[in-house]
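Field log, afternoon session.

UNIT: design team B
ACTIVITY: writing a sequence onto a fixed backbone
BACKBONE:
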């Protein structure tokens, strides 16, 4: 088993263990509730733009985008264009496909993007 597959297997096992740990789930709910009083999610930026999201959510979002490779992302309820900028930069990862990529702009993201090869 190569290192990447070994890592993925370890992650799957970790997630299964976390799903069974009800004490940790309870502590996590308390942590989220208590940090919300201090507007914890307001402390983060993405490329200088406020994102008003938990860092764990941003990491999870880029993992979903990387795995699914959607051709369209619709996000509602955005403030300061932060999450939209996160999704936009997630699509900028270099490709191994040798076809020429089309260039486009995502309004508010402030970055030029290459569309994913189809």
């Amino acid at each position: 088993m190569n290192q990447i597959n070994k890592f993925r297997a370890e992650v799957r096992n970790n997630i299964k263990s976390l799903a069974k740990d009800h004490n940790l789930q309870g502590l996590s709910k308390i942590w989220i509730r208590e940090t919300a009083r201090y507007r914890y999610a307001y402390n983060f930026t993405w490329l200088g733009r406020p994102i008003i999201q938990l860092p764990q959510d941003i990491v999870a979002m880029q993992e979903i985008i990387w795995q699914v490779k959607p051709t369209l992302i619709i996000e509602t309820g955005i403030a300061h264009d932060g999450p939209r900028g996160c999704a936009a930069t997630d699509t900028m990862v270099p490709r191994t496909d040798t076809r020429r990529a089309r260039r486009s702009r995502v309004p508010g993201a402030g970055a030029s993007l290459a569309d994913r090869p189809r």
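LOG NOTE: The two ends are 29 Å apart (CA to CA).
NEXT ACTIVITY: expression trials, pending approval
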